[in-house]
Amino acid sequence: MSNRWWIYQQERFPIFTNGMLIAALSVSAVSYSALLRDGIPSWGSILAAFGITFLLFLQLRIADEFKDYEEDCRFRAYRPVPRGLVSLRELGYVGIVAAIAQGGLALGFAGVALLPYLFGVWLYLGLMSREFFIPNWLKAHPIIYLVSHMTIMPLIYGLATACDWSVTTGWPPLGLPWFLAVSFCNGIIIEVGRKIRSPKDEEVGVETYSHLWGRKAAVFVWLSICTLTGVLAAIAGRFIGFGYPLALVSWALVGFSGLAAAGFLHHPVAGAGKRLEKLSGLWTLFVYLGLGIIPLVLSQYR
């Protein structure tokens, strides 16, 4: 990897940090599907889910680079693409190579069984990158914009779970919609959490939720979604016999999030919004650990 690509990944898509988180989420998705059918996921399903999911998140980043290019040039010239570190054409080639690798992984692991789901995610990603051909209307309706873009999260994790059930039962197991609902809410937690900033950290031309809705409203929405996610995670956990532990962990996280939110509102110093962003990542990690990896490990000792 040349030095400029190393710098790019550090700034826009840290492969090690993202890789560890995506690995946890992918293993959780496959494990949850396997637990629903009282089975154990294969190493092949885990590796296929991780590879396809990791490359999908990379493609999401690349799509954002194309979508936000004009705004980045106007307001965020410090980013890698506007300052000329890498070009959109080069990123486009990376996205194409990633798609070929995804297709190879899907075919090599499950034949054509995964391809319809992979094509479906690609189609939605393409529509997202074009703002569903109604960019101005979506910009004027930030809640609909948020929901429309976060819908790709359950699509991605539905594809990850398909790496298990498509080659075993051939049909999505009962209880899977609750897992997908959790993945949708987790996406919103991360998206809103990373766009809540203190007044000193707001940037001209950057549409944060703290700017659009006000700090109090943005924090209220974030905390409300955290609470909803905790409830959904506990329900999803019941289908794999792990509802009560997840409920306890979720409510502990809600309490901690409430304290963090109150601290941010009372002392919105520079950099304070980063705490909510990091806490959003912890939410995602703990919930997915409890919805797949930990129950799977414990099931081996029963």
UniProtKB/TrEMBL annotation:
Main location: membrane
Keyword entries, A-Z: Membrane, Transmembrane, Transmembrane helix
A Pfam family: UbiA
Keyword Transmembrane helix part of the UniProt annotation: yes
Presence of keyword Membrane: yes
Localisation per UniProt entry: Membrane
Transmembrane portions of the chain: 12-34, 40-60, 81-101, 107-125, 137-159, 171-190, 219-240, 246-267, 279-298
Annotated membrane topology: Multi-pass membrane protein
Gene3D superfamilies noted in UniProt: UbiA prenyltransferase (1.10.357.140)
Annotated protein name in UniProt: UbiA family prenyltransferase
Lineage: Bacteria, Bacillati, Cyanobacteriota, Cyanophyceae, Desertifilales
